[in-house]
Amino acid sequence: MSTRGRSFFRRLDIRFPWLKLVVVCLAGVAMIADLCDLTISHVGDPLNKIRIAPMSHHVRVTKRTLDGKKLVALTFDDGPSPETTPRLLTILFDKDVPATFFTLGNMAEKHPEIIKEAEKKGNEIGSHTMYHQNLITLSADAVQADISQAKSVIKSILGHSPSYTRPPYGNINDNVRRAVSNPMILWSVDTEDWKSKDPDTIIATAMSEVHDGAIILMHDIYPTSVDAVPRLIDTLREQGYEFTTIKELTKARRVALSPGATYYNFRP
Ligand code: NI
Questions:
Q1: For the whole model, what pTM was predicted?
Q2: Which of these, 213, 220, 182, 226, lies nearest to 68 by C-alpha position?
Q3: What's the 168 CA to ligand 1 centre distance in angstroms?
Q4: Which residue, among 26, 75, 48, 18, has the nearest Cα to 229 in the 3D structure?
């Protein structure tokens, strides 16, 4: 800096001694904002997003960058159940993990407040049909009726239609493809939680099959499945996995989903 420059700042200091204080305060605020990670990104940018999950008295703000990360989507079928789903929602919220719920229309009808709460907490809701029938054994009309009933139940609760459908047992034929106007989201990791009903086995199975872009299938109607979730989350995190909803996963992998098409995973 030149002599002239220095004297200018010295003069400024004599005339406006409070200026230093203002500069120090501004720097402090900027530092604190940075530490709190409160950067706001552009709306619609798939790789940086703020997830605000409102709870009764506090709001959490999380900035996430998913580019180049190992991603996994936890999905839960067959609920909601008042015995198990609310506990799962609390676990997911406390761990700051979003999931995707494939709910049954008839269960959602009985417990609408649970799927509303699930969505409010940052999870995604898909359709698992109305009555969990094996669709490939039904007539085209019956398939159509079941699919649209589930859709309208979910729409009446959430105010919007589900973005995805997961046909029970992953069973799909031409009738199903014609009836389902959504992308169909199946899975690449089957924990078989309904079979073992044992948290250790559920976690071991998931960890032996997991991969980047995996969709993990579980069921929120079994207490043992919910019991497995906190440790499964911790173990996946230790291995560097980030948790995403299906929407976040497809955006991060730049996949444009097609109506009626079937997806098992979103590998990079
Ligand atoms: Ni099911």
A1: 0.77
A2: 213
A3: 5
A4: 75
The pLDDT mean for the chain works out to 86
Residues annotated as catalytic are 77, 219
Q: What is the mean pLDDT of residues 232-258?
A: 97
Q: How far does the centroid of ligand 1 lie from the alpha carbon of residue 128, in Å?
A: 7
Asked whether 79 and 104 are in contact (CB, 8 A), the reply is: yes
Q: Which residue has the higher pLDDT, 240 or 35?
A: 240
Question: How far apart (Å, rounded) are the C-alpha atoms in residues 185 and 180?
Answer: 11
Other beta carbons within 10 angstroms of residue 143's beta carbon come to: 24
| pLDDT tens-place string over residues 136-148 | 999 999 999 999 9
Give the strand pairing for 48-54 and 59-65. antiparallel
Which residues have CB under 8 Å from 190's CB, separation 6+?
205, 209, 217
C-alpha span between 57 and 55 (Å, rounded): 6
Query: 241: which 2 tokens?
Result: 């996995």
Burial 42-81 (b: 16+ CB within 10 A, else e): eeeeeeebeeebeeeeeeeeeebebeebbbbbbbbbbbbb
Place of tokens 């990670």: 37
What is the CA(10)–ligand 1 centre distance, in A?
74
Q: How far is the CA of 2 from the centre of ligand 1 (A)?
A: 75
Q: Each residue of 161-179: pLDDT tens digit?
A: 999 999 999 999 999 999 9
**Burial (0-12, 13-18, 19+ Cβ within 10 Å), 17:** exposed
Strand spans (E) along the chain: 48-54, 59-65, 70-77, 100-103, 124-127, 184-185, 189-190, 214-219, 241-243, 262-263
Instruction: Give the pairing of strands 48-54 and 262-263.
Output: unpaired
What is the per-residue pLDDT for 64?
Answer: 72
